[in-house]
Specification:
The relative contact order is 0.14. This protein has 4 helices and 2 strands; from the N terminus they run αβαβαα. Helices cover 52% and strands 9% of the residues. By secondary structure, it is mostly helical.
Length: 106
């Protein structure tokens, strides 16, 4: 979130992609407020919901961003997972999630 805010303050058009729609929209609102794009006629922040572990969703999203915003000139992958629980029960979950996310987000 802070990285996106910094890019926006420096004049970048920021495209947010997250599986958490509510959190993503909150970040977009913060950026619009902080950067003044809420009052600017030119839209400077875009928010999309996407599971970066799903290759088909990512392909579809890239095409949508190119139509809505234009070419993607910089990409920051800051995807992460946080789960609390018994480590033995979560090992397989972590292995599947990390493998899926890292393999498919390339």
């Amino acid at each position: 979130q802070q990285m996106a805010l910094l890019f926006a303050k420096r004049g970048a058009i920021v495209v947010l992609c997250d599986i958490n729609e509510a959190g993503n929209l909150h970040t977009a609102e913060l950026i619009a407020k902080e950067s003044g794009s809420a009052t600017n006629s030119e839209k400077r922040v875009f928010a999309y919901t996407c599971d970066i572990g799903n290759r088909d969703e990512v392909r579809t999203l890239v095409e949508k961003i190119q139509r809505d915003v234009g070419e993607i000139t910089m990409l920051v992958n800051n995807g992460a997972s946080s789960v609390v629980g018994n480590l033995r029960e979560l090992v397989r979950f972590f292995q599947r999630q990390f493998f899926r996310r890292n393999r498919c987000s390339r």
